[in-house]
Amino acid sequence: MPKIGIPKTVLITGASSGIGYELAKLFAQNHDNLVLVARSENKLNDIKINFEQNYQVIVTVLPKDLSQPNAAEEIFNQLAAEKIQVDVLINNAGFGDFGEFVNTSWEKEADMMQVNMVALTQITKLFLKGMVERRRGKIVNVASTAAFQPGPLMAVYYATKAYVLFFSEAIANELEGTGVTVTALCPGATESGFQLASGMIESRIVKGRKLPTAEAVAKFAYKAIEKGQVVAIHGLLNWIGANVIRFLPRKVVTDIVRTMQESDR
């Protein structure tokens, strides 16, 4: 795995499992120090022990629930108090919900918007200024192939990921020439706990399919971060799908996504 410059400190949200954990492992192997954020303190502490013993890095754990409105500011203030400078910010935390909007839980959707959009935006804003002042830094916002079209049966989730993609592209443009890059990582369905947690385990989009592993997506993302790639879509078929839909009528696209999301039951 290639080194991304000199050793640095990498902050990763949603770091206790899936793509977040696999990215943390790659950076640890690169001998970069880590700040890991997730809700589960026990999982984070296990990772801390493992990585510090095996990779000789410093791991700071911050058990935080990003659905809480003050979480982003608490993270920033705690690291500032400990004089920990963040060189790479990976906004990976996020979750979805499955079902018709009329029947889904508003409470879960409000938390989803807070985590997927608001916390991501606030954390980016808080850490970005220091990166620009130092004229170096990398920001990665984990979007999804869901960002490229509306998503019946996961309407709010798809909308949040479209926000992440467009926000990332816009600030990437604003930051040209500053030494700071922004990457929107767009994986498709990935082998992780996401499908079970979101209730879409029976959906045609995942049922019976061999999905890419979180490790494979993380390795792809690591290379995209190194290059400063603005939009990084994992997988050739996902890249084709994300680009072909621009030439189809929007009603057709929405109908196709609805069919893919439904279950065979």
Can you give a write-up of this model?
This protein is of the alpha/beta class and 265 residues long. It has a single domain (9-261), classed as Rossmann fold, CATH 3.40.50. It has helices at 18-29, 41-55, 71-81, 106-134, 155-174, 194-198, 214-227, 236-244, 250-261; strands spanning 9-13, 33-38, 59-63, 88-91, 137-142, 180-186, 231-233. It has a 7-stranded parallel sheet, sandwiched between helices. Helix 1 (18-29) links the parallel strand 1 and strand 2 (33-38). Helix 1 crosses helix 7, helix 3 (71-81) packs parallel to helix 4 and helix 4 (106-134) runs parallel beside helix 5 (155-174). The longest helix is centred in the middle third of the chain and has 29 residues, at 106-134. The radius of gyration is 18 Å and the shape is globular.
